Amino acid sequence: MQVLVVNAGSSSLKLRLLGEGVEAIASADLPADARDSAFTGELVRFGAIDAVGHRIVHGGTEFREPVVVDDHIVERIAALAELAPLHQPAAVAALRAARAALADVPHVACFDTAFHASLPPAAATYALPAAWRERFGLRRFGFHGLSHAYASRRAAELLGRPEEELRTITCHLGAGASLAAVRGGRSVDTTMGFTPLEGLVMATRSGSVDPGLLIWLQRQAGLSVDELAEGLEEHSGLAGLAGTPDMREVLRRAGAGDASAVLARDVYVHRLSAGIAAMAAALGRVDTVVFTGGIGENAAEIRERSLAGVPFLAVELDAEANARGSGDRVIGLAGDSSTRALVVSSREDLEIARQVRAVVA
Q1: Which of 18, 26, 203, 225 is a good FRET partner for 260, with 20 to 30 A between their CA atoms?
Q2: pTM over the 0.85 mark
Q3: CATH assignment at residue 100
Q4: Does the residue 123 lie in any domain?
C-alpha cells in the first residue's frame, strides 16, 4: 500500500508518498497558500496512491484514534479549530483539497492528541469546578502524539527490547515542544494540556505561566483577550526572551556572552529539566530518554545541559556521540548508567502511514 502523508502547518504543506520502506517515493514542500492547486499540480508525478493520511493536531474528546474521513468527520474536525487556531484550519483546508483531488481513495485522519487518550485521570484532569469540566469538556489532551509514539517505538528497536517492557521519556523539541512519559507504549503523562500552550518554553510560545498573571494583565494592564493570545502564541518563548525564535542563534549568542541569549537558554533548559524530572516521577523507573524534533536532534548542548539538570537519572553521555554523531543513535554510555539517552529522527510520516495501513486494512 502506497500512502500519501499530508502534513499541513500554519505556513507550509508537506506531502510524502511512502511505500513499505522508510524512504519517501516522492515528496513536495509547498507554501500554505498553494493548497488549492498543490494536489492537482504535484500529484501527477507522485504515481499510484492507495490511501491518504492526514496529520490533525487536535481531536478533542471525540477522536481518540485514527478514523476514515467522510463529510461529517471533516465538519467535526473543523469545529475544533478554536482549540488549535494556528494549526487546525490549515489541516482542514488541506484535508478538503486532498479529498477533492483524490476522491477515489480512503482518507484517514491521524490525531496528535490520540496517543495521549490513555492518560490516567490523575494526569488528565484539571482541578477546576466540576460544572466547567463537564459543560466544556475540559481536560489535558496533550499533543505531538504522532512524534512521541514513533520515537518511543523506534527507541525500543534501537535498544533491541520490546516496547511493552520499557519506560521511556520522549522529548519532542522543535518550534513547539513537549514531553511524554511512555509506559509499555502508552502515554501516562505529558507536558502540553488543553491547548499546545501549556508546558515547556517554545520558540514563540510561552509554555506554562501563572493564570493569575493573565488575569492581572487583563484587569490591571487592560490587555484584551486577543492581545493576550497573540503575545502568548507569537511573541513569547525564545522570541520573548532573546528576540529570536531560533535556538541555533540563541546558542551562538549565548556562547558569545550575550545576556539575553544566556537567559533564554537557561530558562529553556530549567523548564526542560524540570519537565523530564516530572515525567520520571510519573514513570517511577526510566529506561530511556529520547530526544527528537529539530532542537532535540541537532542541539547537543541542550541535550547535555538538560540531562545534567536531572542527575538522579544517572545518564552518562558519550560526548562524541552526542556532539558529532548523526542519525538515530544511543548517546548514553553503555557503562553503569541504568538509563540510556537516545536521539531519534522525527518521522511523524512513518507513524501516520502505519496508522493508515492499520485502519484501511
Answers
A1: 225
A2: yes
A3: 3.30.420.40
A4: no
